[in-house]
Specification:
Blueprint: H1 2-14, E1 19-20, H2 35-42, E2 50-57, E3 64-71, E4 84-87, E5 100-110, E6 119-126, H3 137-146, E7 154-161, E8 163-164, H4 197-210, E9 214-227, E10 230-246
Length: 248
């Protein structure tokens, strides 16, 4: 989930007209604001305090929500982070008559957007009765993993994403056509092959800064998209993010 957060932020930072994962992104009105004005405030000292952005999965099971809490000092571990709450009736996670939900911090990363001493805090969600929310898949996963603690399992994950323009067209494709045949794009090099490289490099560096165990990236190609018994040749440029996570 952390990689998703970093990637969404970078999409808007580089170009509000570029989307990701099959979503069509409308051009944001905020793209016309002077970003240099914001930067002068972001460089102001924080008086020893820290901003902790609490992030969780909402009732859709896919979308993210967040809100930020001011802490008196920089937290060193997850144990330094207080539990928090939110209104689940506004996130498709509860009814309005009993809407309090609890945010339980479970992972903390350095914030590559606000930078040190600020943190990004990944949370699981509990209902008002302290039972896991329906979309809290981590709770069950944690129970299963505890059953094999002695095995010390290792997991390898690869995460891929596709950059899209505002019209839903893959980023870097010709305006009124298709790219050339498969071949030049896998692990491609050059502005005419590795589209959106600025976003890829920024994403990579942000993950390293935050402390994510990211092992590498490469450009990838998928060549067939099947719909209504017709085969369309779509060459999607995927960036593989290799994460190696050790779970105990």
């Amino acid at each position: 989930m952390y990689l998703h957060i970093v990637l969404f932020y970078l999409m808007y930072s580089f170009s509000p007209s570029v989307g990701v994962w099959g979503e069509t992104m409308a051009t944001s009105a905020s793209s016309k604001l002077n970003k240099a004005v914001k930067q002068q405030y972001m460089e102001l000292p924080q008086g020893g305090r820290a901003q902790a952005m609490y992030i969780w999965v909402d009732g859709s099971g896919e979308e993210l929500r967040c809100k930020t809490r001011t802490l008196d000092s920089e937290p060193k571990t997850v144990d330094d982070l207080p539990e928090w709450n939110f209104d689940g009736s506004s996130t498709f996670q509860s009814e309005g008559s009993n809407s309090d939900m609890f945010l339980i911090p479970v992972a903390m990363f350095r914030d590559p957007f606000r930078r040190d001493p600020n943190k990004l805090v990944l949370c699981e969600v509990l209902k008002y009765n302290r039972k896991p929310a329906e979309t809290n898949q981590r709770f069950m996963c944690k129970q299963i993993m505890r059953m094999v603690d002695s095995s010390e399992p290792w997991f390898g994950m690869e995460q891929e994403y596709t950059l899209l323009s505002t019209d839903g067209h893959p980023f870097g494709w010709p305006t009124n056509g298709f790219p050339g045949p498969q071949g030049p794009y896998y692990c491609g090099v050059g502005a005419d092959k590795a589209y959106g490289r600025d976003i890829v490099e920024a994403h990579y560096r942000a993950c390293l800064y935050a402390g994510v165990q990211i092992c590498g990236t490469n450009a990838e190609v998928i060549t067939r998209y099947i719909k209504q018994h017709h085969i369309y040749i779509y060459i999607y440029i995927y960036i593989y993010i290799y994460i190696y996570i050790y779970i105990t």
